[in-house]
Design brief:
Layout (H helix, E strand, L loop, with lengths): L2 H21 L19 E5 L5 H16 L5 H7 L6 E5 L7 E13 L6 E14 L5 E4 L3 E4 L11 E5 L12 E4 L7 E10 L5 E10 L14 H16 L6 E2 L2 H16 L13 H5 L8 E5 L5 H9 L2 H7 L6 E7 L2 E7 L1
Parallel strand pairs: 1-4, 6-10, 11-13
Antiparallel strand pairs: 2-3, 3-4, 5-7, 8-9, 9-10, 12-14, 13-14
Helix pairs in contact: 1-2
InterPro entries: CAP_dom, CAP_sf, Ig-like_fold
Keywords: Signal
Protein name: SCP domain-containing protein
Length: 344
């Protein structure tokens, strides 16, 4: 093919594209009677403040060209028009304004197949329909957090930011919060955040929350040592004399719980705890498995033997020590106050 023929082929390609840009429509708008298809501007839908708007407009118009070019002309178009690198210029485009707006689009095409590169600019008036269908974005600092038992907290403190593609100013304080966290009950919870923009799009986020277990009370009572062993031996000797099986000393949790009871009773001598609850709740707080708990207290005497004797000289306390239903006993003391709970 001669240079003249190549130039003619390139010109035909550009003319073909120009015809496409001036006759085809991306959508099928309703035309008035007597109005030709060429009179109807194509409509391209874009998202408000779309940073890739120019590329999307260019792609849409290329698609229009592709479907409009006759089959016999595609062989001329494909090698000749460098569509990917075409430059685009749009007059009076305002992507921050919702609704339709008419703009003039200018595409500069390069014909790389010609011996002498040809360049032409095609102009097309189009209608851009600017919409807002994107929901606001709620960014959390962490997807899941842990709270201490009965910790005071504000869910909004765990929101990093709120943003929207409309660039509408949104404040964290505007968030709707559904908070079902009960900080006085350990377990797993979820907090739901949501917010709507001016177009009614709703963004949401979910924060996982774990409330930790209630901390076990600190015991200042004595729950181990020779004195505890001595008291256990005195109790089991008395049970042996009565023909009863010995009691085993409670495990670590039971001993910690009785240490709490000894400390409490040292300042408030009662089988009720300072908050008015039953003494067995000390076992509950330490996760002790039990049934039929029976508590005894004594403040009298100065030695382990004196304490034991006082219990055995009291019919009520003696009956607990010699209970046939008990299999275990927790023993502890705080100062002069001794406490024990026999249980199964």
């Amino acid at each position: 093919m001669t240079q003249k023929h190549k130039a003619l082929s390139s010109s035909l390609t550009i003319v073909t594209l120009l015809t496409c840009f001036t006759t085809a429509a991306l959508t099928s708008p309703i035309r008035a009677e007597g109005e030709s298809e060429a009179d109807v501007k194509p409509t391209i839908r874009l998202e408000i403040n779309d940073l890739n708007a120019a590329d999307k407009i260019k792609t849409a118009l290329f698609q229009e060209a592709a479907v409009s070019v006759p089959a016999e002309a595609t062989t001329l178009m494909a090698p000749a028009a460098d569509l990917t690198n075409a430059e685009i210029k749009i007059d009076q485009l305002d992507l921050s304004k919702l609704g339709p707006q008419d703009v003039m689009v200018h595409l500069t095409l390069n014909n790389s197949a010609a011996q002498n590169s040809l360049q032409t600019t095609l102009s097309r008036e189009v209608t851009l329909d600017i919409q807002d269908t994107t929901a606001p974005v709620i960014e959390l600092k962490y997807p899941h957090i842990r709270l201490e038992y009965e910790e005071e907290w504000n869910p909004l403190d765990w929101v990093e930011s709120v943003s929207d593609n409309s660039l509408e100013p949104l404040d964290i304080q505007q968030l709707w919060v559904e908070n079902y966290v009960d900080a006085s009950t350990s377990g797993e919870y979820e907090v739901y955040f949501s917010i709507a923009d001016a177009s009614g799009n709703v963004g949401s986020a979910t924060l996982g929350v774990q409330v930790k277990e209630k901390p076990k009370p600190k015991s200042s009572g004595i729950v181990a040592g020779d004195a505890i062993t001595s008291m256990l031996n005195l109790i089991n000797n008395a049970r042996a004399d009565a023909g009863l099986d010995p009691l085993s000393l409670g495990d670590e949790n039971a001993q910690a719980a009785i240490g709490v009871r000894a400390s409490e009773a040292a300042g408030y001598v009662s089988h009720k705890r300072p908050d008015g609850s039953h003494y067995k709740t000390a076992f509950d707080e330490y996760g002790v498995s039990y049934s039929h708990p029976l508590e005894i207290l004594t403040y009298s005497g100065s030695t382990v033997q004196d304490k034991f004797n006082w219990w055995m000289n009291s019919s009520g306390h003696r009956s607990i020590i010699l209970s046939s239903s008990s299999t275990k006993i927790a023993i502890g003391y705080s100062g002069k106050m001794w406490a024990a709970i026999a249980y199964q």
